UniProtKB/TrEMBL annotation, chain A:
It comes from the Eukaryota. GO terms for cellular component: chromosome, telomeric region; nucleus. It is found in: Chromosome, Telomere; Nucleus. Pfam families: tRNA_anti-codon (PF01336). One of its GO terms (molecular function) is DNA binding. InterPro entries: NA-bd_OB-fold (IPR012340), NA-bd_OB_tRNA (IPR004365), RFA2-like (IPR040260). The keyword Transport does not apply. PANTHER family: CST COMPLEX SUBUNIT STN1, REPLICATION PROTEIN A-RELATED. Residues 42-127 form the OB domain. SUPFAM superfamilies: Nucleic acid-binding proteins (SSF50249). This is CST complex subunit STN1. Keywords: Chromosome, DNA-binding, Nucleus, Telomere.
From TrEMBL, chain B:
GO terms for molecular function: single-stranded DNA binding; telomeric DNA binding. Residues 22-56 are annotated as: Disordered. It comes from the Eukaryota. Belongs to the CTC1 family. This is CST complex subunit CTC1. It comes from Elaeis guineensis var. tenera (Oil palm). InterPro entries: CTC1-like, CTC1_plant. Residues 24-35 have a biased composition (Low complexity).
Length: 172, 1360
C-alpha cells in the first residue's frame, strides 16, 4: 500500500480539486497516479451553512475553495443505542462546529469524498489557527511535500475496484 | 471658702508628686444629689476628716493626682531676690511662692504687677515636683487677693524694696522710658575685667562696687510726640495716656536693667507688648566691641516700672506673619526633645530654643499652650524632609498660655559648656537643628558601640558628633558670634539670611528608621501601582509566569539613588552570623549591603559613612490594602528624636544597599598594618617574612550547620585555591633606618588620629578613599643592590615595590619550586609548572573571612617557615594539600600592577566551539547595578598591592614575562565560564548521544560534567520546599526559617534559555538573586533526567555569584505562559536548527541521527498513566494552574506529517505535550454531562487534571490500548486495564477517552526524535507490539523533544 494513502495529504485546493476521481465504491482519488484518501488544508472560512445534521463550509486557501462538511448527526446514532464513544464524539464535533466562523483561519483534516460530482472533505477535526502565518507555512509545506514525496514515487497498481467505477458518488 | 482646706507649700513638697487642686470645686451634693449608695461610697472614699494628702503607696509620677476636695494655697508671690539661684530658671522665668513654711518656684498665668510681693489666694493650681524631689514648681491658674489686701489700693509697679519706704512717685529722675515693651533679653553678665577696661565709658562701674555686672536689656518703643517728649514725670506720662490716644510708638529705646533690677525679668517678660513706664533711668552711651556705641538707659536703685493708670489701646506689635522675624505663634506643645532645645508645636512646627534661659522650662511640657513672640521663620534645607522652624534669638519670648496636665516631668537644662555646646551655638538655625538631630541619631546608632562621652565629647575633647558635624557642615553654616549687646541691638541683621545659601543637609539616620522608610516607600509605590491598575480597568495586577503548570508571581525590583532619598547611611560592616550576608550595622538594626569593590576579607570595626549608594527594593506585587500598612513616617523629626519603635512588617520585601567602598568615608580608623608588621620585635626577631600566593578558584557554599560547628570544632567551610609558583618575600631592607622611618610614619599617623581626629577626618572627607595613592610613602629603593643580594641567594625572578595599604614596604617574588639551571629555563619551568591545588578550610570562627573571599582573587598567606628556601612541595603550611584558616590566620588580598598595562585575558578554549564569558563588569548601564567590580579596577582596596616594574636589562624583562605568563595561565586555569548558548551546545551533546531505553536504576544517580555558566536570570521560583509549606519567592530571599530550598532558575542570554534546578542552602542564597540579575553559576552539573533530557543541576558544591542586577517591573495583568516544551530548556531557535525531514525519509537515516519533523497526532495506540510518586519535584500545593500529578512512563502515538505515518514513543514531558495535557488539565469536565471545555472554572474539583489525579490515585496505573484503525478518529476500540481491583467506572473511562480524542485533534507540533533501533524495540513490551499489527509496519521513533510550531520562523527557514 502506498504510504500516502493512509496520511492526510497536504495539497493546495487547486491541486486537490483537480485530483482524479475513480468511480469505485467508495470512490478512489489519485493525484499523479498515487492514491490519496485523506487531506489536510489550511484556509479562511468563506462560506458557512449550518443545518441540524451537518455544517457545510468553504475553505479558501488562496488557490481555490475546498468544500468541507462536518457531520453533526452523531446524536441520531447515539439515540438508537449508540456507544458512549459516539456520544463523546458528538459533543466534540458540536464544539468544533462552533469554532468554525466566517473569516476564521482553520486547519481541516478529513477524508476526501465526493458529493454531486464535486470533491469535498468530510471533516475529521478542525482547528482554528491563531497565527495567520500558518497559512503561508501550509503553502510551503504543500510545495515541499509535493516535491519531496507526492511527486516522487511512481504510481502503484490500482485495486480492481477502481477499474469499475460506480455510477454515482456517495459522500459517506 | 467654707469647707476649703488650706494646704501649705511644705505639704506639697512632702508629698512630692504631681498634684492639681482648686478651691472652688463644686460639691457633688449641691449640683445633683447622688444616690444613697454613691453618697455612702463617696464618704467612705473621702471621709471629711481623712488626711487630704495621704501618701499614695503606689504613686504614678506621670499622672497628676487631682485633689477631690476644695483646697487653697495662701502665700506670697514674689521675685527671687537672693543672690543664690533657687533654680536654674529663677533669674529669667521663675517667680517665688512662699507661705512661711517653704518656698518654691511659681508661674502665674495672668500675672498682675500688683500681686508681686503680696499675699494671694491661689484658687486653681498645679504642682509639679522636680526630679530630685527637692523642690517643685507651682503653676498658678487662678488667684485672688484676700479681702484685706484688696482693700489696699497700691500702685502696680516694680521697685527696689530697700528704697520702697522712701519711694517717691514724683522722683525727679533724669531719664525715663515710656512706651511699649517690645522685647527683652535673657539675663546675662558682663565680666568684671571687661567692665574695668571699659570703665571710662561704661556706667556700670559707677553703679556696682565689684563683681560681674548682671542684667538684661529691654527694647521699649517710645512715642516721639510732643506730649510724651515734654512729660517730665510719671504723672505726666499717665496724663498723656489719658489725654492723647494718638501716640505712635515707633522709636526704639534700649533699657539696661542692671542688678538689682535684673530680678524683675520674670515679671517684665509677662509685660511684653504692653505699655510700661520705666522711671529713674540714667542715660549712658555704651560702646560695644570698641566700635559700635548705643545710647542706653540704665536702671538705678530708684528705678520703677509701672503701668499706665488708664487703659490704652495699643496696636499689636507683631510683624507680618511670614516676615523673617517677628510675629506670634501660638500652639500646643506636642513634643519636647533634646533637653528642651527642640520643641514640637501642633505636631508640625518646630521651635528651636537656642538659649535655655529663653523658655519657661518648668512649664514647657507636652500639652501646654505656648505663645512665641519675636522669633525667626526658617525653612531648613533638609534633603529628606520639609519642615517649618521657629528660631529663637535673644529677643524671643516664650510665654505659657495654658499649663499642661498631660506631662509631669519637669525639665531643667543648664547652659552647656562642652565643646559640642559651643559648636552648636556657633551655627545657623538649620545647621543647629540638624546637629540636634544628628546627636539623637548618633546616640541611637552607637548606643552599644560608643559611650555617651565618646559620642558627645566633653569640655576638652571633641566627640564623634562634633568631629563629624564640623567636617560635614559647610562654612556658611557657621555664623559669627557676638555678645548679647550686639545680638540684641543689631537684631535687624537677621541670621536667617545665611540659611538660604546653605546646601541641603543630609542626615545619617538610624538603620531602623531607614528600613521602616523603605517599607513605607514600597507600600506607597505598590498602592500607586494599584491605583493606576484600577484606573485602567484591570483588577488583577498580579503578574504571573507559569512554569510546569505552576503559576509563579513575578517580582518587582526598584533601584533608588541616594540622591533621591536625601539621607546618608552610617554603620559598621559585619557579616551576619545567621544569614552570612555582609551588612551595615548600627545599634538599631542592620541592612544587607553589596560592595562591588570590596576585596579585603578583613573587615574591621570602622564606622563608614555612605553618602552615595543605591537602594534596592525587591518584592512581590501583592495586593495591598494600604490602610493595613500604616507607617508613622520614620523620617519625621520626632521619630528621629524619640525612640522609634520599629517592627518589620513586610516579610516579602527585600531591602539592600549597594555602594562602593571607595566612595565611603571612615569615621574612626583602626590600624591597617597588620600587627606582625607593626610589631618591631616580631619583625626583628624573624628578619624575613614569607607569603604564599593563592588564587581562589572556588568556594564551596556554606551549609547551615556552621553555627552548630562552633562547639564541635569542625568545619564545613571550604575553598579551592591554586598556589602560585612564586612566593612573596617580605624583608628588611638594607636601609634599616628607612624601614624604621616607614614604621614610624605609620605609628605617627595612627597617633595623629587620636590626637588630631578632626584634622584627619577633614583629610578623609577630602580624600574619601580608604587607601589614598598619594598618601603612599614613596620609597627610592636601591633596586640594584637588592637584586644583587637576591640573586646571590637563588633565582630571583624580579624585584618590586610592595605596598601594604598605606605603607610601602620592600619585598620580592621568589620561585616557589626548587629549580636549577639557566635562568630562562627556570622561568619557563615556573611559568608552566603545574598548579598546586590546595583546599582552604575555614574554621567556624573565621566565617566572615570565608564569606568575603572572592572567587578569582589573589591572596597572600603567611608561611610558617622561616627563611627564604621554602618550597611549595615541602612547606608545612601546605602539607596534605590543606590549609586551616582560623581567626588568627590572615588572608590578605593581593593585587598586581605592572609598569606596562597588562591584559588579563583568560585563555579561550575554542576547540569545543564554546565561548567563555569575562565576568566582573567595568561599566554599568542605566538602572543596572554592578555587584562585582573587575579586579583590575579595584587595586586600591586590596590589602596588599604589588607593583612589578620592568627592569632595564634583558634578564629582568624575561623574569617579568615569566611572571606575567604564570598569572595569565593561572587565570585561565581558574575555570572557563560559559555563556548560555555555549552551555546549550554542551547540553545538546548530551541529547545527541544515542539513547535507547536506559536502565532506570542507573538514571537515579546524578552523573555528568561540571560547568560554570554565566547568564541573565529570567525567573526564579521554588518547586519544592522541605519546610513542607508553600513559600513565596521573596520569603525565601528574606526568611530565616528555612535551611534548604529547591529552586528553579531560568537563565538566558540573548539567544538561549536554560533552566537550573536544585537545592540551595540559606547561606548560599546570594543577595539580589532574582529576575533581572546577571549571575555566574559555578560548578553546576550537566546531567540527564530520567527521561534522558539534559538539565543543569545545582549540587551542594555549586556556588552562585551575582554580578549585576537591573530594575524589574512586570507588566500589568500579563500572564506569561511557558509551554511545557519551553521548559525543555532547549531554545526553540536551537531546536529549529535540526534539519526538517519527512517521516517517509526516515528509513534512510541512521538510527542515532536526530530528525525533526512537523506533524500531528492522529491516534494513540498505547498509553500508560501512573500516579506521580510522592516527594516529586512538583509542588504539593493547591495552586490553580498546576499540572496534574501524572506520570507517563510510556506512550505510543501515531503521528502524521503528510508523507507517512509513524509510531512515536515518548514518555514524561514529551508524552504530556503530545497528549496536550497542559491545555486540557485546567478545563472543566463533567462526567456524564457535557464538558465545558473552557478553562474558566479553574478552582473546580471537576477539572480534567484533578479528575485524572483521582483516577490514578485510586487505580495507581492505567494502561490503555487502541485496537482501532490507525488514521481514523475513534475510541471505540480502546481497552483499559489497571493495577487495582477497583471497578473502572463509565465516567472515568469517558474522561480517558476524551483525553485521547482531544489529543488527536490538536494542531501541528515539532517533534525531534531518532529511529528506535532493534535492541531498544525489544525492550518494549513484545506483547504490545504483537497485538497491534496495524502499527507494526510503521516507522518506530523515540521522541526526544516536542515543541510548538512558530509558523513565521519556520516559513522563513523553508524559504532560506
Amino acid at each position: 500500500m502506498d504510504p500516502i494513502q493512509t496520511v492526510h495529504v497536504k495539497l493546495m485546493a487547486s491541486d486537490l480539486l483537480s485530483s482524479t476521481v475513480w468511480p469505485s465504491k467508495p470512490p478512489c482519488f489519485t493525484r499523479k497516479g498515487r492514491p490519496i484518501s485523506r487531506a489536510e488544508t489550511v484556509g479562511v472560512v468563506v462560506s458557512h451553512e449550518r443545518k441540524d445534521k451537518f455544517l457545510r463550509f468553504l475553505v479558501d486557501d488562496g488557490s481555490g475553495c475546498i468544500p468541507c462538511i462536518l457531520w453533526l448527526n452523531h446524536y441520531c446514532l447515539t439515540s438508537h443505542g449508540g456507544s458512549s464513544d459516539l456520544d463523546l464524539m458528538a459533543e466534540m464535533t458540536l464544539k468544533q462546529s462552533e469554532i468554525v466562523q466566517l473569516g476564521e483561519l482553520v486547519r481541516v483534516r478529513g477524508r476526501i469524498t465526493i458529493y454531486r460530482g464535486m470533491l469535498q472533505i468530510t471533516v475529521r477535526d478542525v482547528v482554528v489557527e491563531r497565527d495567520p502565518n500558518a497559512e503561508v507555512l501550509h503553502w510551503l509545506d504543500c510545495i515541499r511535500l509535493a516535491k519531496q514525496c507526492y511527486d516522487l514515487l511512481p504510481a502503484v497498481t490500482l485495486p480492481r475496484s477502481v477499474l469499475n467505477p460506480p455510477q454515482d458518488g456517495s459522500d459517506r | 471658702m467654707e469647707g476649703v482646706q488650706i494646704l501649705s507649700v511644705s505639704d506639697l513638697l512632702r508629698v512630692s508628686r504631681p498634684l492639681t487642686g482648686a478651691a472652688s470645686l463644686r460639691s457633688s451634693s449641691s449640683s445633683s444629689p447622688p444616690s444613697k449608695r454613691s453618697k455612702l461610697q463617696s464618704i467612705q472614699e473621702n471621709p471629711p476628716d481623712a488626711p487630704l494628702l495621704l501618701s499614695d503607696p503606689n504613686p504614678n509620677p506621670r499622672i497628676f493626682s487631682p485633689l477631690k476636695r476644695p483646697v487653697l494655697l495662701i502665700g506670697i508671690i514674689d521675685l527671687f531676690r537672693e543672690d543664690v539661684d533657687h533654680c536654674c530658671m529663677s533669674r529669667n522665668q521663675c517667680l517665688s511662692f512662699s507661705d512661711g513654711s517653704s518656698r518654691i518656684c511659681c508661674s502665674v498665668l495672668d500675672l498682675d504687677l500688683e500681686i508681686i510681693g503680696r499675699e494671694v489666694h491661689v484658687l486653681a493650681w498645679n504642682f509639679v515636683p522636680f526630679k530630685d524631689k527637692k523642690g517643685g514648681v507651682l503653676e498658678v491658674i487662678r488667684w485672688s487677693l484676700p479681702a484685706s489686701e484688696a482693700a489696699l489700693e497700691l500702685a502696680a509697679s516694680l521697685s527696689i524694696p530697700s528704697t520702697s519706704s522712701s519711694q517717691d512717685t514724683n522722683l525727679i529722675s533724669r531719664s525715663r522710658a515710656f512706651g511699649i515693651l517690645r522685647s527683652i533679653s535673657p539675663v546675662f553678665s558682663v565680666p568684671c575685667a571687661k567692665q574695668s577696661r571699659d570703665q571710662k565709658n561704661s556706667p556700670c562701674g559707677n553703679l556696682f562696687d565689684a563683681g560681674d555686672s548682671i542684667g538684661f536689656l529691654a527694647d521699649v518703643l517710645t512715642c516721639s510726640c510732643e506730649l510724651c517728649c515734654n512729660s517730665s514725670s510719671i504723672a505726666d506720662c499717665h496724663s498723656s495716656v489719658k489725654e492723647n490716644t494718638c501716640h505712635s510708638f515707633t522709636k526704639s529705646m534700649f533699657v539696661y536693667f542692671l542688678t538689682p533690677t535684673s530680678w524683675w525679668r520674670p515679671v517684665l517678660c509677662k509685660l511684653i507688648g504692653k505699655l510700661i513706664i520705666v522711671s529713674g533711668l540714667k542715660k549712658k552711651l555704651i560702646f560695644v566691641g570698641g566700635k559700635e556705641s548705643y545710647v542706653m538707659f540704665v536702671t538705678t536703685v530708684k528705678s520703677v516700672v509701672s503701668l499706665p493708670q488708664f487703659p490704652m489701646k495699643v496696636k499689636p506689635l507683631i510683624g507680618r506673619p511670614m516676615s523673617p522675624s517677628g510675629g506670634v505663634y501660638k500652639g500646643v506643645v506636642t513634643g519636647v526633645y533634646m533637653q528642651g532645645m527642640a520643641v514640637e508645636l501642633d505636631g508640625k512646627v518646630w521651635l528651636l530654643v537656642t538659649d535655655p534661659q529663653l523658655a519657661p522650662q518648668h512649664c514647657l511640657r507636652v500639652g501646654a499652650v505656648v505663645s512665641v513672640q519675636n522669633f525667626h521663620w526658617v525653612h531648613p534645607k533638609f534633603s529628606w524632609t520639609r519642615m517649618l522652624l521657629l528660631g529663637t534669638c535673644t529677643r524671643t519670648s516664650i510665654d505659657i498660655e495654658s499649663f499642661s496636665l498631660s506631662e509631669t516631668s519637669c525639665r531643667s537644662r543648664s547652659q552647656s559648656q562642652s565643646l559640642l555646646g559651643k559648636l552648636i551655638d556657633s551655627l545657623t538655625f538649620s545647621a543647629r537643628f540638624w546637629v540636634l538631630l544628628l546627636i539623637s541619631c548618633f546616640k541611637r546608632k552607637f548606643a552599644m558601640i560608643f559611650s555617651d562621652k565618646e559620642i558627645l565629647g566633653s569640655k576638652n575633647k571633641e566627640g564623634l558628633v562634633q568631629t563629624y558635624a564640623s567636617n560635614y557642615l559647610p562654612s556658611n553654616a557657621f555664623q559669627s558670634q557676638h555678645g548679647m549687646f550686639m545680638n540684641f541691638c543689631k537684631h535687624d541683621q537677621c541670621p536667617c539670611r545665611s540659611e538660604s545659601s546653605l546646601e541641603p543637609l543630609k542626615l545619617a539616620i538610624p538603620i531602623s528608621n531607614f528600613i521602616s522608610r523603605c517599607e513605607a516607600k514600597w507600600v506607597m509605590m505598590l498602592s500607586q501601582k494599584q491605583q493606576v491598575t484600577e484606573i485602567v480597568g484591570r483588577k488583577h495586577c498580579l503578574d504571573h509566569f507559569i512554569c510546569e503548570g505552576i503559576s509563579n508571581c513575578c517580582m518587582i525590583r526598584r533601584i533608588i539613588s541616594s540622591e533621591d532619598l536625601g539621607f546618608v547611611l552610617m554603620g559598621a560592616l559585619k557579616v551576619s552570623p545567621s544569614s552570612g550576608r555582609l551588612q551595615l550595622v548600627d545599634a538599631t538594626g542592620s541592612v544587607d549591603v553589596v560592595i562591588p569593590d570590596l576585596l579585603s576579607n578583613n573587615i574591621d570595626q570602622n564606622i563608614y559613612e555612605v553618602k552615595s549608594y543605591k537602594l534596592v527594593l525587591e518584592g512581590l506585587p501583592m495586593q495591598l490594602d494600604h490602610w493595613q500598612y500604616h507607617f508613622d513616617e520614620p523620617l519625621l523629626c520626632r521619630n528621629i528624636f524619640k525612640h522609634f519603635s520599629y517592627k518589620r512588617t513586610l516579610n516579602q520585601l527585600s531591602v539592600y544597599v549597594q555602594f562602593y567602598l571607595g566612595d565611603t568615608t571612615c569615621l574612626n580608623v583602626a590600624s591597617h598594618v597588620p600587627s606582625f608588621m607593626v610589631g618591631s620585635n616580631n619583625l626583628k626577631s624573624s628578619g624575613t617574612e614569607m607569603f604564599h600566593l593563592l588564587l581562589v578558584t572556588h568556594k564551596f557554599p556554606a551549609n547551615d550547620n556552621f553555627q552548630d560547628e562552633v562547639m564541635s570544632d569542625s568545619s564545613s567551610l571550604f575553598a579551592d585555591a591554586f598556589v602560585f609558583p612564586y612566593n612573596l618575600y617580605f624583608r628588611e631592607t638594607n636601609e634599616d633606618s628607612q624601614l624604621a622611618e616607614v614604621m614610624q610614619d605609620n605609628q605617627k599617623s595612627k597617633s595623629d588620629f587620636i590626637d588630631h581626629q578632626k584634622d584627619l577626618t577633614e583629610e578623609w572627607s577630602k580624600q574619601p578613599r580608604l587607601v589614598n595613592s598619594s598618601s603612599r610613602i614613596p620609597l627610592t629603593a636601591s633596586r640594584n643592590s637588592c637584586q644583587d643580594f637576591e640573586r646571590r641567594l637563588c633565582n630571583i625572578p624580579c624585584s618590586h615595590s610592595f605596598t601594604f595599604r598605606r605603607s610601602n614596604l620592600h619585598g620580592s617574588l621568589l620561585p616557589g619550586y626548587l629549580c636549577s639551571g639557566h635562568s630562562s629555563a627556570v622561568q619557563g619551568l615556573l611559568a608552566n609548572h603545574p598548579a598546586s591545588r590546595i583546599l582552604l578550610e575555614f574554621k567556624s570562627d573565621s566565617f566572615s573571612k570565608y564569606q568575603l573571599l572572592r572567587l578569582g582573587a589573589y591572596y597572600i598567606l603567611k608561611c610558617s617557615n622561616k627563611g627564604l628556601l621554602c618550597y611549595v612541595e615541602d612547606c608545612e603550611c601546605l602539607a596534605r594539600g590543606k590549609v586551616l584558616v582560623d581567626s588568627q590566620t590572615n588572608l590578605w588580598s593581593l593585587s598586581f600592577s605592572f609598569d606596562e598595562i597588562m591584559q588579563h585575558e583568560p585563555a579561550q578554549d575554542n576547540s569545543s566551539g564554546v565561548s567563555s564569558v569575562i565576568v566582573g563588569g567595568t561599566t554599568s548601564f542605566q538602572n543596572e547595578l554592578l555587584f562585582l567590580q573587575s579586579l583590575d579596577q579595584i587595586q586600591g582596596t586590596s590589602d596588599v598591592h604589588l607593583h612589578l616594574s620592568v627592569g632595564s636589562t634583558e634578564p629582568m624583562k624575561n623574569e617579568m614575562e615569566a611572571v606575567k605568563h604564570a598569572l595569565t595561565r593561572f587565570l585561565a586555569m581558574s575555570g572557563c565560564i560559559l555563556s548560555v548558548s555555549s552551555c546549550v551546545q554542551i547540553m545538546m551533546g548530551e541529547l545527541i548521544r544515542p539513547s535507547g531505553i536506559t536502565d532506570p536504576q542507573s538514571s537515579k544517580l546524578l552523573q555528568g560534567n561540571q560547568i560554570s555558566l554565566n547568564g541573565d536570570i529570567e525567573n526564579v521560583h521554588m518547586y519544592d520546599c522541605k519546610s513542607g509549606s508553600c513559600m513565596s519567592f521573596q520569603y525565601v530571599a528574606n526568611g530565616d526559617r528555612w535551611r534548604v530550598c529547591n529552586i528553579c532558575i531560568h537563565v538566558n542570554d540573548d539567544h538561549q534559555m536554560v533552566r537550573i534546578r536544585g537545592g540551595i542552602s540559606r547561606c548560599a542564597y546570594p543577595v539580589g538573586m532574582g529576575p533581572g540579575a546577571n549571575a555566574t553559576f559555578h560548578r553546576v552539573l550537566v546531567t540527564c533526567t530520567s527521561s534522558r533530557r539534559p538539565e543543569l543541576v545545582l549540587t551542594p558544591i555549586s556556588f552562585i555569584v551575582i554580578n549585576s542586577i537591573k530594575e524589574v517591573d512586570c507588566q500589568h495583568g500579563k500572564e506569561v505562559f511557558l509551554p511545557s516544551s519551553r521548559l525543555s530548556m532547549l531554545d526553540e531557535n536551537f531546536l529549529n536548527t535540526f534539519s526538517l525531514s519527512l517521516i517517509s525519509q526516515m528509513k534512510q537515516c541512521v538510527d542515532s541521527k536526530l530528525v525533526r519533523f512537523r506533524c500531528r497526532v492522529v491516534a494513540i495506540h498505547f498509553l500508560v498513566l501512573e500516579s506521580h510518586p510522592t516527594g516529586s519535584a512538583r509542588l504539593q500545593s493547591g495552586r490553580q494552574f498546576k499540572m496534574p500529578e501524572v506520570k507517563i512512563p510510556l506512550a505510543g502515538f501515531v503521528l502524521d506529517d503528510g508523507s507517512s505515518l509513524s509510531c512515536c514513543w515518548a514518555d514524561d514531558c514529551q508524552a504530556e505535550t503530545l497528549l496536550r495535557l497542559h491545555e486540557t488539565s485546567c478545563q472543566a469536565f463533567f462526567c456524564g454531562h457535557k464538558f465545558s471545555g473552557r478553562a474558566g472554572n479553574r478552582n473546580s474539583q471537576h477539572t480534567i487534571g484533578n479528575q485524572l489525579e483521582r483516577i490514578l490515585k485510586k487505580n495507581h496505573r492505567v494502561i490503555i490500548r487502541n485496537y482501532g484503525a490507525v488514521p481514523d478518529l475513534s475510541c471505540s476500540d480502546l481497552t483499559f486495564s489497571f493495577d487495582s481491583d477497583n471497578i473502572f467506572s463509565n465516567s472515568e473511562e469517558r474522561l480517558l477517552r476524551f483525553i485521547i480524542l482531544n489529543a488527536c485533534c490538536g494542531s501541528i507540533l515539532n517533534v525531534l526524535g531518532n529511529k528506535l533501533d532493534s535492541d531498544s524495540l525489544k525492550q518494549l513490551d513484545s506483547e504490545l507490539l504483537e497485538s497491534q499489527a496495524s502499527i507494526q509496519s510503521l516507522q518506530n521513533v523515540w521522541v526526544k523533544e516536542v515543541w510548538d510550531v512558530n509558523p513565521l520562523n519556520e516559513a522563513r527557514n523553508l524559504l532560506l
